[in-house]
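Worked example

This section walks through a single chain of length 239. The input is the sequence exactly as stored; nothing has been trimmed or padded.
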Amino acid sequence: MIRINLWSGPRNISTALMYSFAQRADTRVHDEPLYAHYLTHTNARDYHPGAQEIIAAQENDGEKVVRDLLLGPCDKPVAFFKQMTHHLVELDWAFMREMVNVILTRAPRDMLPSYAQQIATPSLHDVGYAQHIELLQYLRDLGQEPVVLDAHQTLLNPRGVLTTFCDRTGLAFDEHMLHWTAGTRPEDGLWAPHWYDNVHRSTGFQPYRTKEDPFPSKLKPLLAECQPFYEHLLQLAVH
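Given that input, the structure is written out below as tokens.
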């Protein structure tokens, strides 16, 4: 059995990739199973939309999520877990030894203004760039060389990037991964109404579009913090 963790930051194409994998007949997908664990272990519960609803509905014990879901039985030969890197708080990361781990990044100049529409004053920890580098080093220490995906490169060439992604995770590329039906989907987490409007209007990977609006001045210090981490990952990304 193949178990895949897609470790992303927020406001990326992680939901589109989850929808992509949901089109495979051999794959069961799961949307951010560690979200409630993250909310109950950080002050993010004070400013994330829908936090109390998520905490009430989803398993709060991250170690139990790892044991029963991430490493538990699955009714299909592939399990795909859409994850947020910043959800990795107060957890033993050793479970990653038994899983395929993929890192998904996005240019902070594109990501930060989008995220700030929901979280007014984001911090470096909220957006996951530093944790991505920490995770990369941890996985390398385990002897893994994780696939690194960049949102821009993926949108420029979804077929090529997904083919390489599948090859490197032991799967055959499936043409169905390029398209899905618009609208809400059964795999959506409870937080979908707050975050998934754009992807719900899509039927596949959307063409990359350069942002026209000026970059917000208030986010420039955070951009400067994030950029070196992003550039490090970009050098490793599948093209």
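What to look for: The chain has one domain: 2-234.
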